[in-house]
Amino acid sequence: MHAYRTHNCGQLRATNAGETVRISGWVHRRRDHGGLVFLDLRDHYGMTQCVIEPDSAAFALADSARSEWVLTVTGPVVLRPKETVNANLPTGEVEVRIQSVEIQSRAEDLPVQVFGDIEYPEETRLKYRFLDLRRDKLHRNIMLRSRVIASLRRRMIDQGFTEFQTPILTASSPEGARDFLVPARNHPGKFYALPQAPQQFKQLLMVAGFDRYFQIAPCFRDEDARADRSPGEFYQLDFEMSFVTQEDVFAAIEPVLAGTFEEFSNGKSVTPAPFPRITYADAMLKYGSDKPDLRNPIIIADVSDEFADESVEFKAFKGVIANGGVVRAIPAPGAGAKPRKFFDDLNDWARAEFKAAGLGYVILEEEGGALSGKGPIAKFIPTPILQRIVAKTGAKAGDAVFFSANKPLEAAKLAGAARTRIGKELGLVEEGAFKFCWVIDFPMYELDDDKQIDFSHNPFSMPNFDHDAFLKLDREKDRDTILGITAFQYDIVCNGIELSSGAIRNHKPEIMIKAFELKGDGPEVVEARFGGMLNAFRYGAPPHGGSAPGVDRIVMLLADEENLREVTLFPMNQKAEDVMMGAPSTVTMKQLRELNIRIVEPQKP
Fold first, then answer.
1. Across the beta sheet with 436-440, what order do the strands follow?
2. What is the pLDDT of residues 73-86, one digit of tens each?
């Protein structure tokens, strides 16, 4: 018989009754029933109930076992009495009568209980992550992650992609976040960077002629943590394709994502391919976000023209419009029946979260067959204007309409957040669904805080603009035209979560240099920062494009979790610290001298 086990703890069934077996695992729970001692033994595969009687020679040793001790038990498999069968456990029809027991290791008093559903502070969970990972829910999430990655990999290979590994030590890149820098011992004063993404390498693979690349790629960004963003590192399904249009990229990845979500959706519906395409402009107008949650049926409308009408006397909105602002209307189906507190809370929230003047609103009623409005601003809206607003929003009697007035971007943000909150509070968000869409036609450029032209996404995207005309643009004279250029850039969004950004790449050196020139960077900047890739493009580059859906976010959605920590093996805390391993940590002076580095302490304020 094997030293540790003939079967695992999730394997025994009624057909094994009468067999003498050996299993090993952790004591999940210990129960003393009037002399009989029950030990639930747990391993990676499942759990088996074991029992020992007081007259057994092994009783004293088994009786001494406590939670999370590691035991090896040997004994016959017996059927449980019908009244004690556990239908919720795969091994619930049987138990092992312990004849001998061996203690493999003892556990000290537990700082995190594995049995039960006790909630612990984040720092405690992360410090004792090895215990946290023994808990059933987290263990299932991590196993789900493994299966999802295997499914993604299999589906990509079936789509004709080949997996390659790109370098981890590389040069600093302009992906938008801070780099993690690694000192180069043999090159004093110089540093490698951990890749924020394999962006340039995967494009170089296309130049090298490999056609369809993918990788479950680790990415490193020195950025603050959020619920849907891990500090430090994350993984993405990185892929790139040659000789493709934007639609070709969509057609390649949609079956992979839809198929993976269908495989692990647990009965939830999944948007079939092809996914809806929504322009960035429409997304910001109709949903107030470039990450629209299509489970929410509320559609925002632009009612700037209605409030600009000379018959409207509401000066607050008219002033916003006169100063270049807009008014967005957010319908709230059925909200007319809500108490006054519902409306007051929304106004208080808008003031507190967005520093807005509030959310004006109108409650729609029907009087004598005609629609009318009531509420703080209803008296300022003539009936014909109210009818136009109703037509644009699709609202009806018993509904309410809220309004967000500000500069276009600020108005969209508040309207989008209000749409989300109203949808949740009114129970309008569809449950049991994964709704995908593409957001396309992102602006190529935007204005930075100093009102200077900057890239809105990344510098590697092909402008959706006539190339000859693009090369003739002047940064100063054609400012409005430049800000109106869209790019072949796109995001995959599911349930309001951005899974990835992607693009058809700018593979022409002259277009790339011109794109940076319009931003204000000369050819020398492009050569210095992207010389390797630019030089490669000069030797024949195919049109190419790709994307990189985030693996962590995919698993988070499928596991129905709200925080990436719940689907990541060893996450850092909110301060980007690994409290279990003690990272980041100090290093010795010897190590610093080898790297030609001196630590400069930050100045005290």
1. 162-163, 212-221, 232-242, 544-547, 497-504, 489-494, 436-440, 277-279
2. 999 999 999 999 99
- Phi, psi for residue 301 in degrees, rounded to 5: -125, 150
User: Are 543 and 508 contacting, i.e. CB atoms less than 8 angstroms apart?
Assistant: no
Nearest-angstrom CA–CA distance, 467 and 462: 10
The contacts found for 278-286 with CB under 8 angstroms, 24 or more apart, are 278/437, 278/438, 278/439, 278/440, 279/439, 279/440, 279/441, 280/439, 280/440, 280/441, 280/442, 280/443, 280/486, 281/441, 283/439, 284/408, 284/409, 284/412, 284/416, 285/328, 285/412
| Residue 531 pLDDT | 85
Task: At 391, list the tokens.
Answer: 């037509």
Q: Comparing C-alpha atoms, which of 395, 392, 391 is closest to residue 362?
A: 395
pLDDT (tens digit per residue) in 273-327: 999 999 999 999 999 999 999 999 999 999 999 999 999 989 899 999 999 999 9
Rounded Cα distance between 138 and 117, Å, is: 11
| Bond from prior residue into 276 cis (ω within 30 degrees of 0) | no
For the stretch 62-66, contacts whose Cβ atoms lie closer than 8 Å and that sit 24 or more positions apart, written own/partner, are 62/37, 62/98, 62/101, 63/32, 63/37, 65/27, 65/30, 65/39, 65/101, 65/103, 66/27, 66/30, 66/106, 66/107
CA distance 324 to 33: 77
Mean pLDDT of the chain: 94
Residue 144 has pLDDT above 80, yes or no: yes
Cβ neighbourhood burial of 343 (10 Å; 0-12, 13-18, 19+): buried
Q: Where on the phi/psi map is residue 523: left (φ > 0), alpha (ψ -120 to 50), or beta?
A: alpha
Residue 207's SS3 state is helix
pLDDT digits (tens, 9 = 90+) for 152-196: 999 999 999 999 999 999 988 655 678 999 999 999 999 999 999
Asked if residues 488 and 461 have their Cβ atoms less than 8 Å apart, the reply is yes
- Give the C-alpha separation, 292 to 270, whole Å: 16
Q: What is the DSSP letter of 565?
A: G
Q: Is residue 463 reached through a cis peptide bond, with omega within 30 degrees of 0 on the bond before it? A: no
Q: Is 476 helix (H, G, I), strand (E, B) or coil?
A: coil
Q: What is the pTM of this model?
A: 0.93
- Tell me the angle at which helices 509-519 and 523-537 cross, rounded to the nearest 10 degrees: 160
Look up residue 257 and give its two tokens.
């994502």
CB atoms within 10 A of CB 102: 15
Rounded to whole angstroms, how far apart are CA atoms 299 and 318?
A: 23
